[in-house]
From TrEMBL, chains A, B:
Source organism: Thermogemmatispora aurantia
Organism lineage string: Bacteria, Bacillati, Chloroflexota, Ktedonobacteria, Thermogemmatisporales
Gene from which this protein is expressed: thiL
Keywords: ATP-binding, Kinase, Magnesium, Metal-binding, Nucleotide-binding, Thiamine biosynthesis, Transferase
Official protein name in the record: Thiamine-monophosphate kinase
Homology family: Belongs to the thiamine-monophosphate kinase family.
Enzyme Commission number, as recorded: 2.7.4.16
Functional note: Catalyzes the ATP-dependent phosphorylation of thiamine-monophosphate (TMP) to form thiamine-pyrophosphate (TPP), the active form of vitamin B1.
Length: 347, 347
């Protein structure tokens, strides 16, 4: 049995089963961040995530600066996904001997830019060689903070809650498609925007803070869309013990995504439902508070949000509802970086 | 210009030059840990360090369990090197597809053992594939705590201070030598102990706490010996703006190190002075407090400590003093994992 026969989530669950905890660990393994109460004025949020050359990025399709920005952005997104504020970063680089210094300097330029934009300090790190491997990798650990009673997790969704998503899921996956298959005559403007979304996602920090301020009585569950909307909705359902129904007609599809899909003769829905790396926020709102949340986002000039479905009984599982009222099971086809790159996984 | 032409320290200095900081960052980049004052009852210590297959370990010379223990132990040692208490760990694994599940389970068994021994909780992490690379890597971020005013850094050594070291430096490097060149008829008992020290170093957590309790007025500087005694003494001197003189006759050489060196016809001093990965503590004590420190260690049943020299003026640099009174410059020949594995670096 080798590692590659397991999904990332199965492997983590197996390796970390039964690990001890303590009272001060408010949220442990299994959410976007761990949450600690160390007795200070605010709770601590901790997350780590990697970007590995040939798995998560290539230097053919992204500049070193874009790779640096994205490496930090995906960690910032995990802080956003708990409603927290990012504060400090540790940067661990695995650097092949032949890696040009300019690549590392570009990478750090991107890290600095992204850190400055998020008022996050780089306070430490490590560099290591890679031996025989020629693969550049970046591991980032991020510390954030949040107020007591304001941390939002994956675990609080209840039957009847409305499911919302920020922005336009699927854009990143469509951008990646155009990078992997560059020879097609894509519509240039749409293509450039989708590629930019893929190369440097914008972590939804301000939106996460808005949701945190609304609090867990109103915003019952929150996650960022890194594995794909279906996969991340599945995480909420699993942790909350519920099911979910998505209304196809409500899924927000960007004009650029639709334009790209049209030139390829593809269904844009597949990207919106299953494409990974959007780093949009997916959240659930208690019944009766939908307009409150929408008004708050509008007043703050935050990202657009769209209600896309309802939380249902666990027994219903994940379902898609078509405009004609027809329903069908929604299968999770997450992008799993741990299995073969480029190969979607059905579970 | 490629990364491999730079040392780890030169590269970090270049990439992180001029990074912004804030008031709550008590210690930033350049010590064993970053230290944060987040307003809680204790200061937070943060460190991260990697173990990469073929660079820091091989599965031919260490079991997966030993690799797991060491990966956490070297991070625990960084907490010890500030006088802190370890609390929480994040584990990031880079896993080749073909890596057997038993290797990962062995690794995690080692991580669990070492975490339990240090009362440290594993609260999160990440797993990632490695693409085309066949190299297993483990990145660990460790959070610790310490009392305000009790954090010990590399920066406080003053002229006239006495330099101490715990345990027996050189043992790990001698153990590594016997693993890299296994065909020599080594004395079996000595060889086994030295190899065990190399495979699973014991972080000097209790000793770090003792030094922290004595406080920075008595214990003026502290570091752990990861790069080799000469290299890490060099770090203290650089950060403190001082020089140092080591008395050759006082260097504590273990019986096993001497036995191994004798069968090889080698000088055990080179290992003691320049061998890396000892994870002993190297510290400086203000004049007049040497006996206080020794008595405290003896009373606590802590590791043996040995005074090995004096802090001098910066202009003197690092020097070795022989029993006949002769002095010579001590050149730093650190083990630098970032340059070619197995090749010592002279600076």
């Amino acid at each position: 049995m080798s590692a590659g026969t397991w999904s990332e989530f199965e492997l983590i669950a197996r390796l970390t089963a039964g690990l001890p905890s303590r009272e001060e660990v408010v949220v442990g393994i299994g959410d976007d961040c761990a949450v600690l109460d160390t007795g200070g004025p605010r709770l601590l949020l901790l997350t780590c995530d990697s970007q590995v050359e040939g798995v998560h990025f290539t230097l053919h399709t992204s500049s070193p600066q874009e790779v640096g920005r994205k490496a930090l952005a995906i960690n910032l997104s995990d802080i956003a996904a708990m409603g927290g504020e990012p504060r400090y970063a540790l940067i661990s680089l695995h650097i092949p001997r032949r890696c040009p210094l300019e690549v590392l300097e570009g990478l750090y330029t991107g890290l600095r830019q992204e850190a400055a934009a998020a008022q996050t300090l780089i306070i430490g790190g490590n560099v290591s060689g890679t031996g025989a491997a020629e693969t550049l990798a970046i591991d980032i650990t991020l510390l954030g903070e949040s107020e007591r009673g304001r941390v939002l997790t994956r675990a609080g969704a209840r039957v009847g809650d409305t499911i919302f998503v920020t922005g336009y899921p699927g854009d990143s996956a469509a951008g990646l498609h155009s990078l992997l298959y560059p020879d097609h005559p894509y519509p240039p403007t749409a293509c450039e925007r989708l590629r930019a979304v893929h190369r440097v996602p914008r972590p939804r920090l301000a939106e996460g803070r808005l949701l945190s301020q609304l609090g867990p009585q109103i915003v019952t569950a929150l996650i960022d869309v890194s594995d794909g909307l279906s996969g991340d909705l599945g995480h909420i359902c699993e942790r909350s013990g519920v099911g979910a129904s998505i209304e196809v007609a409500r899924l927000p599809l960007s004009a650029e995504l639709q334009a790209l899909a049209a030139t390829l003769g593809r269904d844009p829905l597949a990207w919106a439902l299953h494409g990974g790396e959007d780093y949009e926020l997916l959240f659930t709102v208690a019944p009766g508070y939908e307009e409150t949340v929408q008004a708050r986002f509008a007043a703050a000039g935050a990202a657009p949000i769209t209600p896309i479905g309802q939380i249902t009984e666990a027994a219903s599982g994940l379902r898609l509802r078509w405009p004609d009222g027809r329903e069908e099971p929604l299968s999770v086809q997450s992008w799993d970086h741990f299995t073969t790159p480029g190969q979607a996984r059905s579970t």
